[in-house]
Structures are given as structure tokens and as C-alpha cells.
Specification:
By secondary structure, this protein is mainly β. 8% of the residues lie in helices and 32% in strands. The longest helix has 7 residues, at 40-46. It is globular.
């Protein structure tokens, strides 16, 4: 599959790369990405000006806003079906700290974020846990 990857530390070091297709593991879904937004955070990461809690790992698939269609279910996934249209939640916490338990995963000290702490949405497919996604109305083909 194709993905937009920040390949090196230098500003602007971005390439469209052919990478292996991800496979959903237990409790995960494979989403065929149908759209992804680009925002100022992406530009800042590309130009090495992003200042976040943690360093951005390189190489990394960029992008943290996206929507698509469930293409494949991992073992044990029951509350979502292949073909469901979904939007991806780009950020999640540990689920166990005070901030997560009070509904503030963005304040979790070990939060993860698509396209910032791990591979993102600028790819043809993305594996995610069902809790990272939200069902979408029929707004894209």
C-alpha cells in the first residue's frame, strides 16, 4: 500500500512510499482510508517545528485526521462490521489514570496520538482498535 512518510529528520523530508499492508490483530479493525485532513500540526511536524510532549518518531506515516470504511475485522471484534463507515479518533489514553477515568484522555501522561506518537492516517489502510473510531453517516462513497 502507499503511505506518506516523514522519512528523515530534515525539514520537508517526506516521501510517498510503498509499505506492507497492515493486518488487524485480536480486537483490531483494518480501515480503508477514504479521506484524511491536513492541519497545521502536520506542517509543523514536516518542518521540524512541532513542540509536543514527546518527540515525533521518524520514520512515521503522517496525518492524524481521517475517515474510511472498515475493510477487515480482527479476531474477537463484534460491535463493528466490514463496510461500516468510520471516523478515527486520533488520540487515546491509557484508560486507567485519573484523567482517562474522568473523560480527559488528552490529559493522560501516556497518551498516544495518530501521526504524532505513532503511524497516522496518510495511508491507504490503517489498523486501529474499534474504540478509536466513530460511526459516520453516509457522507462519502
Amino acid at each position: 500500500m502507499k503511505a506518506i512518510v516523514k522519512v528523515r529528520e530534515e525539514a520537508g523530508a517526506m516521501e510517498v512510499k510503498e509499505i506492507p499492508m497492515p493486518k488487524p490483530g485480536r480486537g483490531e479493525v483494518l480501515v480503508r482510508m477514504k479521506g484524511a485532513g491536513i492541519c497545521y500540526s502536520d506542517v509543523m511536524i514536516l518542518n521540524n517545528k512541532y513542540k509536543g510532549r514527546v518527540p515525533v518518531p521518524i520514520p512515521m506515516i503522517m496525518g492524524h485526521e481521517g475517515a474510511g470504511m472498515v475493510a477487515e475485522l480482527g479476531q474477537g471484534v463484534e460491535h463493528v462490521s466490514a463496510g461500516d463507515k468510520v471516523g478515527l479518533n486520533p488520540l487515546w489514553g491509557c484508560g486507567q489514570c485519573v484523567n482517562c477515568l474522568n473523560g480527559y484522555p488528552n490529559m493522560c501522561m501516556t497518551w498516544r496520538h495518530l501521526g504524532i506518537t505513532c503511524d497516522g492516517t496518510f495511508a491507504e489502510y490503517r489498523v486501529c482498535r474499534p474504540l478509536w473510531r466513530t460511526s459516520c453517516p453516509t457522507v462519502f462513497p
